[in-house]
Amino acid sequence: MAATILDGKTLARKIQNETKESVAEFVDQQQVTPTLAAVLVGEDPASQVYVRNKERACKRVGIDSQLHRMPESSTTDELLAKVDSLNQDSAVHGILVQLPLPNGIDARRILDAVSPDKDVDAFHPGNVGLISQGRPRFLPCTPHGIVQMLARNQISTDGKRVVVLGRSDIVGKPMAMMLAGRDCGLGSSVANATVTVCHSRTQNLAELTAAADVLIAAIGQPKFVTAAMVKPGATVIDVGINRTDEGLVGDVDFHAVLPVAGYLTPVPGGVGPLTVTMLLENTLLAARIQTGCQID
Ligand code: NDP
């Protein structure tokens, strides 16, 4: 039987409707509109699309967005000054520095400079540390979206074998930390996994993936995961976004894996829409933190 397709677009819309209600309630109580400032450096076309999508999503749920464009020739110091001014600006609750930054800019220094309370991408070392200790302030958007997708489809990872392909700071590592913990904030059923993290130096990778109850692919290699690498009935989450001659494809060979997996996310329309949605949630959370609201 073919896998059930996990529709990220519909789920993202549902969660955004919930966020919209929460934003309206917050605005009503605090008389403050949550505001996200995006910093876009240079003219990278994909980054322009991502930022535009984020602005549109903000608008849909009642969050204000600001776009701070900086030229490709900007220096690290100029960017640090911009981040500092946004940190000081009490009307800005969340700061997003769109990646990748142009060559020559010290991205680590820039991301570290974002105030931890405005760090809606959860890239600051302080926020990463809190995740690793199981008491997150913000959850990083893509892993958070994945956990929402699992939880809302009643797919448990408790006691299960999870393989995460990729060890980036943005997806692989935080994903593994969240699922290996006792509870990442969405209940114990989407935690408590036995997690294996694979990367480009992993040996016998296909053997490891074929034993996974849940396989999360985030490596940026088009159609890398084949049917033989998937355990029958497994849940396969495809994070990859690869631009190829045949259009956007994921890290999973969708049509080959469809008859083998139990659940499968498409690309596009899977994890991507949830990533943006979690950014909205984090911006509202940032506004709550900065207005002194009680955080559960
Ligand atoms: P990175 O390039 O930062 O990391 C890629 C990881 O994959 C590295 O750990 C690398 O290993 C590993 N890797 C690469 N090739 C192989 C291979 N052949 N076998 C095993 N491991 C391999 O990527 P990101 O984590 O930022 O992104 C991954 C993918 O997810 C990209 O396609 C990106 O566009 C997409 N993405 C999608 C998002 C969404 O919302 N849907 C959000 C963020 C990313 P090593 O460490 O050894 O180099």
What does this structure look like?
This protein is α/β, with parallel strands linked by helices. It has 2 domains: 31-115, Leucine Dehydrogenase, chain A, domain 1 (Rossmann fold), CATH 3.40.50; 140-272, NAD(P)-binding Rossmann-like Domain (Rossmann fold), CATH 3.40.50.720. 40% of the residues lie in helices and 16% in strands. It contains 10 helices and 11 strands. It has helices spanning 8-30, 45-61, 76-88, 107-113, 125-132, 141-152, 172-180, 205-209, 254-257, 271-290; strands spanning 4-5, 35-41, 64-70, 94-97, 161-165, 194-198, 214-217, 235-238, 242-244, 247-249, 263-264. The strands form 3 sheets. It has a 6-stranded parallel β-sheet. Strands 3-2-4 form a 3-stranded parallel β-sheet, sandwiched between helices. A two-stranded antiparallel sheet has the order 9-10. Helix 2 (45-61) links the parallel strand 2 (35-41) and strand 3 (64-70). The longest helix has 23 residues, at 8-30. It is globular. The mean pLDDT is 97. Bound molecules: NADPH dihydro-nicotinamide-adenine-dinucleotide phosphate. NADPH dihydro-nicotinamide-adenine-dinucleotide phosphate binds at residues 142, 165-168, 170-172, 198-202, 218-221, 239-242, 271-272, 275. Residues 142, 165-168, 170-172, 198-202, 218-221, 239-242, 271-272, 275 line the site of NADPH dihydro-nicotinamide-adenine-dinucleotide phosphate.
Describe the structure in brief.
This protein is an alpha/beta fold and 296 residues long. It is built from ten helices and eleven strands. It has a six-stranded parallel sheet with strand order 1-11-8-7-5-6. Strands 3-2-4 form a three-stranded parallel sheet, sandwiched between helices. It has a two-stranded antiparallel ribbon with strand order 9-10.
